[in-house]
Amino acid sequence: MIADDSSTPILIAGVDEVGRGALFGPVVAAAVILSENSMTQLTRAGVKDSKKLTPGVRSRLALEIKAIAIDYKIGWASVREIDRFNILQATLLAMKRAIFKLNPQPELCLIDGNQKIPQLFIPQQTIIKGDSTSLVIAAASIVAKVWRDELITRLSEKYPQYDLKQNKGYGTAKHRQAIQQYGVTSQHRQSFSCCQLSLPLN
Fold first, then answer.
1. Which residues bind a divalent metal cation (predicted)?
2. Residues annotated in the binding site, as ranges?
3. pTM for the whole thing?
4. Most buried of 47, 68, 124, 186 (most Cβ within 10 A)?
């Protein structure tokens, strides 16, 4: 939330995604609206780009963000949607879904990256490396990362051979080797070239 020219605060949502480069699982986005007071508090707490935080710190900060945000919401696009639309369009869809769930609706969205969300109908501004330069985008990056990591950890119990608890669905050497050995699951992105080696397990 910042003031416009008339000193009236406007609601700003930070939006970021996680899982775009993974081989397994949905792409997940978070949208977060913060007040000026909560932004100050979260700056002191150490909120920054989720990739620069340890899992334990991310989990702690995600709880703090969710506790003091004006609102936050998660949106995602399924593996089927990723394979159908491509990963970029699925990512933008996940972001739009997160934004549309917000209550109240923001008056401006700050989007991490350089791609605007089609048919958003809310003013938006893209920021390259926004998770490193915008606190509200960084907060969204943390919320999205923790939510997706928890989801993949739960799915790892169903698919133990892929080392998902460690790789969170990304294409590590162990994960790629498991795909070659066991094939892919219904949660693997079959439009990705390295997931086209074998027929699905289910």
1. 16-17, 112
2. 16-17, 112
3. 0.93
4. 47
